[in-house]
Amino acid sequence: MSSSLPPLASPLVRWTLVDDVALVTIDNPPVNAAGRDVRAGLAEAIARAGENPRIAAVVIAAAGRTFVAGADIREFGEPPVEPFLPDVCAAIETSRKPVVVAVHGTALGGGCELALAAHARVAAPGTRFAQPEIDLGIVPGAGGTQRLPRLVGMIAAIEMIGGGRRLATEEAARLGLVDEIATDDLVAAAVAHARRLVGHSPRRTRDLTVPPFDRVAAEAAVVAVENKARRQISPGEAARVTLAAADLPFDEGVARERATFLRLVASDQAAALRHVFFAEREAARIERIAGVAPRPVARFGVVGAGTMGAGIAVAAVDAGFEVTVVEMNDEAVAKGRDRIAAIRDRAVASGRLSAAAASQKLAATRLATDLSALAGADLVVEAVFDDLAVKRDLFARLAAVVRPDCVLATNTSYLDPNAIGEGLAHPERLVGLHFFSPAEVMRLAEVVDTATTSAETLATVVAVARKLGKLPIVTGVCEGFAGNRIWAVFRRECEFMLEEGALPQEIDAALEAFGLPMGPFAVFDLSGLDIAWSLRKRKAATRSPDERYVAVADRLCEMGRFGRKTGAGWYAYPEGRRTADPLVARLCEEESASKGIARRAFTAQEIVDRLIAVMAVEGERILAEGIVARASDIDLVFVTGYGWPRWLGGPMYRAGRLDRP
Ligand code: 3H9
Fold first, then answer.
1. Any idea which fold 287-475 has?
2. What topology does CATH give the domain 2-265?
3. Could you tell me if the CB of 281 is within 6 A of ligand 1?
4. Which protein residue has the closest C-alpha to ligand 1 atom 10?
5. According to the model, what pLDDT value does residue 465 have?
6. Do the Cβ atoms of 335 and 305 come closer than 8 Å?
7. Is the pLDDT confidence value at 660 over 70?
């Protein structure tokens, strides 16, 4: 029987008495983040429960779709405000009256830590437990690193805290994190569980010892986390402080964790990662399609089974679409099938896919030589040769076979989609859907809103991109759209610096020290210099003689140096090792001399600052032209499509931060 209790001061936490159990409910939509008022409400409830003779035990539950999804990330930019989450957890744990949590949805970060501090955890099926703090550049800050290994064992704790492993209810129960799975009424089960604990001394996680574990395996798990993180600091720190739980008394371990948390939460990487976290949520708000329902898409067509088409087809099959790929003839179909099979083989070799699943997915990918195979398609993406006449002709032929409401998407990188769509029947269904290579891996999908695209088409393609596991960023029409347009400016500025005195290896080293996984000249060598060369040759006739033009890349190509595939490009590759080449230095010097430019030295900082500055200027232009909605969308383009580490935050973000180390 329920009865009321004098209310708590917090507007976000309420409680009632169920017989002799205080049922405390957190109600902070949308995800019950443990912000100040939630922490204050919990602290007050625990303190008052301790003093109230009518209360024998406490259950903490959450309203809405999830248990607590973590600390309130919006508070991280500010100094912490009392009561601190570790103190709230300590109050729960040291309560003399049993405290049980009733968990549903997700228990993430600080939410998981609240659960760890309770005396028992009752969870609904389908709940996920995780400590995702590393993704925000921090370590758990409310005891998670010290309590989790005591409950689930050291190796699993390192994998969760350092490696982002998530536990579903059943696995959490097997490992000792969940004490009871509530198949029926969660709160009723938690109340009954709490009542069973009354009269027993509470089982405090802090008093448990870490179960025995293999030290060598644990060290190896930490090293694996560090290696995978490359230069992101938080995963390694999180794994190390977790491992310390085996060596330090609980209070010392918690103090070490808190110090690490406070240091990292103020770090540059954490600030950048928070920026990206909120940028991703902002990007989901697309004004033009607010309230517009996407059309259902089940049948997904792809025209062209080259590298892009094959990758798109793989992503589409993985997302559960019914996929048909059309190529020109039997030979092209066979090659396309080989490409798709090669992607599947790589997934099997790396252990991401079972051999059985791979062959089942292959069998599910239908290939055909006639466009009429796409007659029933709801959406068709073309990924054929990037040539205007070829694409126009294809769309005209496609329009004759597909339904008038079939969405037609072009994967063009550089052509004008408006020109591609000229003369197309029902041009409102035309849209750009620009994938990044490899299309089955890269998260970015630029959705190009053409002059004729209807809101319904845009909404449909955005929904399809999300189902494909992509991050859709809507862009307007301009050469290169958002990403390649800024990338072109970046690339050009790199070449200007070559002419002014920098060498490719210096520019690469500066950008690699800054954080990019690979400098641009090494990337050019990897992807090959010949395609860009033929593009430049095609454009040479129309290039203004006043345009600043650096010809070093042309000279390399004239020498047959197309990059790694020819054994040399911007670098030489003796025994496969990337090596600065004096010949390239000489070409740069000759270029400077031919233009009367006195070469000078560049510092690494100057190289980085200059490149970020030109990217940001182009980004501002793109914003002013309304090509993208917000600066943070540009950051996401680079983080999800161009290999920028998330912890760098993207070029627009960095441009506001040139004064920071
Ligand atoms: C932590 O806990 C540190 C601790 O160790 C303790 C330190 C002392 N805070 O993602 P959605 C907002 S670190 C504030 O679109 P979904 C989000 O911005 C934290 N706001 O929904 C969005 O707002 P808006 C560890 C948050 O259903 C709205 O909620 N926890 C937070 O696709 C809906 O979000 C995490 O890292 C937050 N913690 O996914 C979990 N979380 O509508 C981060 C969300 O204004 N969160 N918001 O744009 C998530 O992974 C997902 O949001 C979740 C829901 C899976 C929960």
1. Rossmann fold (3.40.50)
2. 2-enoyl-CoA Hydratase; Chain A, domain 1 (3.90.226)
3. yes
4. 281
5. 98
6. yes
7. no
